[in-house]
Amino acid sequence: MENLDVVVLRKLHEWRAAGLRAMLVTVVRTWGSSPRPVGSIMALNEQGSVVGSVSGGCIEDDLIDRHTRAYAGPAGEARHAHSLPSGPPSLVKYGISADEAHRFGLPCGGTLELLLEFDPAPDALQALIARLEAGQLVQRRVRLADGQVSLSVAEAPTELSLDTEHLCNTFGPEYRMLLIGAGQLAEYLATMALFSGFAVTVCDPREEYRGAWSVAGARVVSDMPDDVVRAFKPDRRSCVVALTHDPKLDDLALLEALESEAFYVGGIGSRRNNEARRARMIEHFDQTEASLARLRGPIGIYIGSKTPPEIAVSVMAEILAVKNGVTLPRDMAVAQAKNERDWPHNAPAGPVCGVPLPDPLAAQA
To answer: Which of 109, 229, 299, 307 could form an S-S bond across to 266 if both were Cys, CB 3.0 to 4.6 Å?
Structure first.
């Protein structure tokens, strides 16, 4: 599945290029709890078709009713183009009162404000889509007085901004995932990444693994992993995950990824295997603890997973948390959770050489 913003923009361009009247809706402010974050977009056309989302569904239904009159009129005739608004962008709020919040299914106390852009120009939409397809990070600036749009390259992702004259929203290219290894775990992880909006590339020089690959939508390559990482050119919207358990394949790929801006770099393996990997990299590849600080492992969050699908859920959850800037509690880390779980079993039966056993509560403090 593609990046949702790109899906919305492509469909909106398709409608406008076909001559349909349509509207782009952007969440510009929220107060309290809200179902979708600031910057979320959706589009609807004069026939009542919708792509994207700004809420759980109730607000979308109200927008259709208010701005397309998609339901039959008194004479049994459908009302379409004549009832769709036009003109400069306008702002609308939902959930100001408790009754409205309840009516539109907003969380308790939730309010959101939307900017409605009527009949966006097809050529400006196509220019934005082309830049995103080329991998650019783009700032889209809308002049509120008349809806005029300008595009510029953004150096870094920025939060949406709105003042009395302009709306500025940053659109990025797809998030990308590079998986080293085409085994069963990679199939589950690739599937989850695809429906989470990532473009997925799978690298495995081993023909027996590539031949069994069964996930449609993922690109499969056969070159050596370190060469693939260099060609992949990971950026701040990329993650690299090594899954083969083979140091000849995983280690060099991870070292290349650590030289990039990838937001997540990690390798599968037990606590012991990950410690061995770090020791190899320090001994043979002139790495240091500081240079390996970004290397994650064991990867995933601790959910007691044992099977490949459960491990994939664990890993995908951690990747999404890092992508979304969420700091996970320390006790959710796999190594930390397992160390605490194993402590009573690993501890000696009594004091060693007259030294009392450590207090487990103090150790967790």
So the answer is: 299
Q: Which domain covers residue 202, as residue numbers?
A: 175-338
Residue 167 identity:
L
Please list the alpha-helical segments (H only) found in the chain. 4-17, 58-68, 98-103, 122-133, 184-195, 207-210, 225-232, 247-258, 271-284, 308-323, 334-346, 360-364
pLDDT at 26: 96
Bridge partners (DSSP) of residue 333 are 301
Name the pLDDT band for 343 (thresholds 50, 70, 90).
low
Do residues 24 and 121 lie in contact, with contact meaning Cβ atoms separated by under 8 Å? no
Tell whether omega for the bond before 298 is within 30 degrees of 0, i.e. cis.
Answer: yes
- Looking at per-residue pLDDT, the higher value among 55 and 81 belongs to 55
Residue 350 has a CB neighbour count (10 Å cut-off) of 7
Of 132, 247, 232, residue with least CA distance to 178: 232
- Class of residue 105 by CB neighbours under 10 A (exposed 0-12, middle 13-18, buried 19+): middle
What tokens appear for 324 in the block?
């979304």
**Measured between alpha carbons, how far is residue 207 from residues 177, 203, 213, 246, 251 in Å?**
21, 11, 10, 15, 20
Task: Express each pLDDT in 252-267 by its tens digit.
Answer: 999 999 999 999 999 9
* Cβ neighbours around 184 below 10 Å, total: 17
User: The domain spanning residue 302 has which CATH number?
Assistant: 3.40.50.720
DSSP state for residue 251 in the 8-state scheme: H
- The 3-state DSSP class for residue 169 equals strand
Note if the pTM is more than 0.85.
no
Could you tell me the pLDDT band of residue 70, with boundaries at 50, 70 and 90?
very low
Residues 6+ apart with CB under 8 A from 252: 224, 225, 226
- 188 and 121 assigned to the same domain: no
Check whether residue 262 and residue 117 sit in a common domain: no
232 and 309 within one domain: yes
In a domain, 135, yes or no: no
Quote the tokens at residue 136. 């650019």
Distance between alpha carbon 5 and the CA centroid of its chain, in Å? Answer: 11
- The tokens for 334 are 């796999």
59 and 182, same structural domain? no
